[in-house]
Each structure stands twice: as C-alpha cells, then as structure tokens.
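Record format v2
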Amino acid sequence: MTYISVNRVSKKFRRRGQVTEALRDIAIHLEEGTFVSLIGPSGCGKSTLLRIIGGLETADEGEVLVEGVAPLEAQSHKRFGFVPQAPALFPWRTILENMRLPFEVNRKGGRQTPEQTEEAKELLHSVGLGDFLNAYPKELSGGMQQRVGIVRAFASGAPILLMDEPFSALDEITRERIRYQLMEIWDSHKKTVVFVTHSIREAVFLSDKVVVMSSRPGRVTEIVDIDLPRPRRHELEETEEYLRYVHHIKGLLRERWEH
Amino acid sequence: MTTQQNAIDNVAASSRIRETGIGWHKALGAARRLGGYGYPALAFVLLFGGWELAVRIFRINPLTLPAPSGILNALFSDFSFYLDHAGVTLYEAIVGFVIGSALALIGGVLMAHSPALERMLLPIAVLANVTPIVAIAPLLIIWFGFGSFPKMLIAAIITFFPMLVNSITGFRSIDQNNYEYLRSLHASKAEIFFKLRLPNSLPYLFSASKTCITLSVIGAVVAEWSGADKGLGNLVMVFSNYMQIEKMFAAIAMLAAMGIVLTAVIRIVEQRALYWHSSTQTREG
Amino acid sequence: MLTRKKGMAAMSMLTVIAVALAGCGGGEAKPANSPAPSSAAPSPSEPASPSAAESGGASGGIDWEARKAANQAAGEILYSTGYYFAASSPDVQAVMADELGYFEQLGLSVRVQPGLDSQGMKFLAAGQAQISSAGNPSLVITSVDSGAEIKGVATFGSVGVNALMVLEDSDIHTPKDLVGKTLGYKGAIPSWVTTMLAAEDVTRDQFKAVSVGYDPRILDGKKLDALTVYKTNEPYIMEKAGIKTRLIDPGDFGAETSFGVVAVNAQFAAEHPTAIEDFLRALSKAHQYALEHPEEALKVLEARSTSGYDLESETNRWAVERELVQDNLHEGHGVAWQSDEQWQREMDMLVNAEVIKGPIPLDKVMDNSYIEAIYEGTELIWPE
C-alpha cells in the first residue's frame, strides 16, 4: 500500500518578478518502512519536495497523501520527525530536555511516557552520548548535536522521518561515522525515512530507493531501486555492486548536468 | 571548558604583567588576587585618588568641584538621610522600569507577530523615545500631581523603547531550524512563542535591562526636578540651590551607587538565567 | 565581567551626572586675560589707586586719567548676568552701561556674558569671572559659606522681590493659613519662607512643601495652594492667563530681603578697587538712563538675546522692579547703596533656617567701600 504518494506535484517560487520552477510534475510512491533518498544538484528542488511532504510548504499543483491524508493533517498528528540541516536544538534545554520537546508540543498525541524517556536515554547511549544527558548544546560539538537531532527524531514516536541534508555541515570523518550509526538505529526501528542528500555514496549506502532529480526545472530523472543486502555494513562500500549503483547514479546526474 | 578558559586568561594576564614593569605588576597582581573585583577596585582607587590630588594641587574651588574626601564626609555624616531619599528614587525607578518593561514585552509580542501592527505603532514608540523627558515631565506633574506616579511614568517611558526594540528582535531572531522543527510538529503560534521565542529573547532582554535600569534612575531624577518633595533628584537640586556643592555631590554619589547595585543585581540574575548562553562564562575562584 | 561592567556603569553614570549638573548652564570660554586668584598673575605695579575721597564737588579733584590707566591695567572684566538677558537689576544697568559706552569712557574693558547667577557665583569663585549678578544677598552668603571668596558690593533693591502667591479666592491670607496646605517652591525652600512662617509659629512639619517647575499655572488651589514667586514675574503671567491671584509679602512678616546684588571676586576687587568703583559708577549712570528710557533699554536687551525674548513680560518685569527700587532708596544715598542691616537680616534668616551652620562676619560677605566712594550724598560722581 502506498504510504506516501506524491502525484504530479509542481511548485513555483516568485521572487521580485522572477519566477522559478522549483518542481515540475513530480511523481513518487513510497512504501512503509523504506529508506528513500532524494539526490540531485543544487536547485533541483529536493529540499522543497521534502518540505512539501512534511507540510512545511504547499504544492501549487498536484496532490500529496501521507498515510492517506494531506500532509498538514499528518503533521497535526505528529507523524513526522524532522531533522534539518543544522541541529535544531534549543540552547536553553539540556540534551534530555531537548529529547522531550516533540512530546511537549502539540499534545494531542499525548505526553512522554516513562518508557519513552528510557528509550530516549538508551538511544543517546547507543550513539555515544550517554555522558551528555544533562549537558547543554553549547557543550557539544556540531557532530554530537546532529546525532542528538537524529536520535530525537527516532525517539519521538513519529513513523516518518524527514531529513534535510542532515550531515552536510559535518566533516568527512564524522559524516561517515554518523552514517553507520544512522543505519544501526534505523535497522532496529525501521521507520519510513525520506533523506535528502548531495552525496551519492551516502544515498546508495543508506537507501532502498534513490530518487535522482535534475534541476531547472526540478524533475525526477529516475528512481533507482537499491537492491543491496541489509543490514548495510561499511564493508559494503568496497563491493562491486555498490560501486555500480554509485556509477550509475553519477552518470544520471552528469547527463543532466551537461544539458 | 571553564578551566580551559581560566588557563588562557592566566597565560595572557601573566604575559601582560611581564611587559609592563614591576610596580604596575604588583598592582595588577594584587588586583588579580582579589578575583573579579580587583580590577574595578584598582580603577576606582586611581580615579578618586587622582581626583583628590588634583583638587588639592590645583586648589580647585569647592564650589566648582569638591574633593572626594569632602563628598564622602558629607555623605557619611548623615548617611541615613541620603539613604532615605535614595529609597524614594529607587522605588520610583524600579516600579517605572517594571511597568515600562511589561508594556514593552506586550508590545513586542504583538509587533513580532504582526508586521502591520509594527509598522503602525513603531513610529509612535520612536516619537515617545525622542521627546526629551525634561519637556514631558512638567506636563505629567501637572496632570498627576507631585507623588511617585508621574516619576514612575517617566521612568517607564524612558525604559519602554529600548526594551520594546530588544524584545521584538529577541522574538524574531529565532534560529530558523528551530522554528521549522516546531512547525514540523504542528506547534501552535502560542507554543512557538513560549517554547522558542520567549527563551530566545532573554539575552536581548537582559542586555536591554542593564541599560534601562540606569535610564530609569535618570528618568526618576529628572522627573523629581519638575516637582517633588523627596528623592535624590530633589536633593541634588536643593543642594545646588543652597550652593552646598559637597552635599550635592554626595547625593550624586548615592545615585551612582544605586546604578551600580541595580546593574549588578541584574547581572547576577542574568548569570543564573542565561547559564546556557555562549556569552556567560563561569569562573572558578 | 560582572564587576568590570558595573565599574564602567558606575563611572559613566557618575561622570555623566556630575558633568551635567556641576557644569550645566555655564562652561563658557575663559576670557583671554582675566587674572585668576590662584595663579601668579602679577598685580599692576600701580600706586594705591586714587580714592574718590579727594573729590571736592561731583567730579573735581579726581585724577580720571590715572584711574583709567589703572582700569586698563586691570585687564578685561568678565561680567556674568543673573538670568541671561532678563530685564532685572543689575543686568539691565550693566548691559546699558556697555551699550552706552560708559565702561569705555571710564577706561574699563567689560565683557557682558549671559548666564545664571548660580553659575556666576562659581565663575567668580574660580576667578573666571570678576563681577557677577546675584539675585539676592543670600546667594552670596551661601556661596561664601561653601568656600567661595566673593563679596557683595552693591544691592539695587533694598526690599525683597520675593512673595508668596495664592489664588485670589483662596482662604490663605497670612502665613498661619498655610498649616495643612501645600507650598510650591523652586529649587529649594527659601529661608524667607521659613522665617515668614516662623513669625506666625508655623513649623516645617505643619505643611507640605514640594519643588515645582517654572510654570506658575500649577497653582490650582487643589494640589498646590501657594507658590513662591517674584513680584516682577509670575503675577503678570497669571494675569495674562486670566487667573486672579494675590500676593503675601514676606516683608510684612519680618522676612524682608533685598535683590539685585553686584558680587565680585574678592581678590580681584582688592587688587583693582578703581575698577570696581568705576564699574558701579557706570551702572548707576546707566540705571538713570534705563529709568528714563525703558523701551529703549528693553530693545537693547532683546537685541542681545539669542533665543526667543518675551518682550511683554520683560517690560513688565522692569516696570515693577524699577518701582520697587525707586520707592525704597536709602535716605541720603544713591541707588544700589547697601546697608549692613540688609545683609545681616538675610544672614540671620539663613542661620535660623539652618541653611548655613552659623553666622559669617559681614566683612567676609560684603564690602561697602566701593559703592560709598562713587556718591557724594545722593549725587553720582561722574567725570565732566
């Protein structure tokens, strides 16, 4: 059953008389529990698409259904866990208090249960932040903060996670480490994830499907099914199969680039 | 992180000391040992010592500028008298500050959420800000009499604009990622305000408070000049008229002390409230 | 740091307020060659100045040339007015003397500078002004009490220009009616108020006193029942505003004062007595002129005033003042002659009101020798 369906979605941005076609006629169908990446050059509308799915922006044309309802309605039921590009931690709250935030807001979904608090703590432990439960964000590095952001999304109880280039502000090494940690967490939670990235390697490693997009206007070039075995371990990145996918997607992107 | 900062401080301080010679070194060393209070104490000693010397050496007329020794003498020979009047001015200033800040916060909430409202009301606030209080004060006295109320009102007016501007900025300049995050949870405007905008504005509000509290004191003093029977502003004027300059300066010294204490209080509260902010440093010893 | 910031806050507050208050109103540039009392300015090596005691007749027997030379040697005299260019004594006289060239005629180089008398006392004390207007003897006395070395050498009004103003229909007729009422004063409670009330056994705790601003219309009979005023000023303002008022004269209750004092820097006066005498001489002559040509005098004042000038009010001020002056001249003396008694009574009021700790010897606050020297009886001694 299609969990998230994007049908013929278009979006234009108007700025000082200039019109940019951010998205044109996008069609994607995602199933529950899959990890999907959106990849493409800058300006291809991948972030916009992500935000439309999450109800943070509205499409000009077309329809998006999340669990059978409009994104805003899904949002009102707290079905989304959002991880933006830079860590969205509130500096005046401790790490644990930040973890509590999704439960404090929009209480129609209920308060944080003791079990959920425990789960939050465990998840933090599992990514190596067990000593920082009562620390303030200013005491953590960028990488650590982003880890908290990700863990928070997983612990929030939301079934759909939307991640907007969450690792782009991190250095290469940290990026790799977080990538593996993300995989581990996802393996045990199996949430539906829509993941926006610039990095082909990342997309292939993490995803079940990679939606390759092109820009001006934003379009879907191809949706690549990644048929690699799970759980994904870092040894995978040396295999031929993996590299073939990477190569293929690179080609798709280069093609469009040269146009 | 704090011990690290301290270490850096120490290295910097000691290298500075080496550079500037022995006597100076001793003074700074003493200042350093007194902890955070050492440096300002040194500065005060130099300022008042120099002042005292200047008055004596240049035989400056006491009508023009009395010596600190004379001022302190005048102050402490009748301390409870000055304290009494100080209490009046303090009361006027603090209540005025609170009123002004409260109104500024309310205005800030409204204007931060409605650009249309901001465009309408901000020019009026600016007008209130630029009108000199020396001109407004007599009017308020005529309308509201000689009691504390018009002084509080002046203190409130003088507080209002800086607090308003700072609260609007504080409410608006939220981190966009944090804002989006709350939106993704379908947070209501009220939730966004209380969980994000309000805590975010605290550094701005504290910063403005430190300025505004001293402005409030000045406002209360100026208001007293237009009509009062008690208060340090009133004293300054009376002593000035009686040509009792040392006593006048004693009243001024009291005002200065008031300003110091009030700012210090806010600073202490700020340290507690803004534990999480990058600007507050925690020091050991 | 916590304390660094509070230190800075304190210092800036102190500096701002101190600068604003102690230096406000004044601060004009020092005159180029006025000798300061504490600096080593050489006194002119002149013989003892020719005294007017030599006079036989209104101008005979005086070596005016020698006096002129002595006056020139005294250098430029900076005279500070008491209330900018308001038409009150001794400023009207000083301005007219300057305008009509009387100072020049006597060899005096005088610069008339607008200011406030409270600031003028400070300039005198510091030696930045040599002569200044003072509203009344009390101002000079309190300044001397605070360490200023200045003296009053002439007083134009031998009765007070102060009064208590009440609404015409108010039930206050004498000081004792003030019990339980509210009195407004400007600056500080004047000692004549305290004395006037004491005359009817009213003590400070029996009435409310509030400092007020300059608009007399605050006297509404509700929040304010009585107001200290100048006979020459506020009554006219109220009349123009259509408000009927009444004055209670402190002189009727043993609290008579004087007005229109010429004060000098004591050291300068001691070193240049001819200059002081001739300065007063010029003022006296100018006074006659201003009496006879009041409109012209007002026009001169108005022309010198840089900001707006209320010609009507000032005309009234001079009219009331000159009547007070002329109606109360000392028997057998010229205008501005002052008696010891005038000064003593104000000294006593200040002591009784505890504004000064104790009486000061009169010769420390006043000197009549100069004003005595310029008159022959009631006639002014003037060069032919």
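The beta strands of chain A are 2-15, 18-31, 35-39, 61-66, 80-83, 160-164, 192-197, 209-214, 219-225.
Chain A has two domains: 1-79+160-174+191-259, 91-158.
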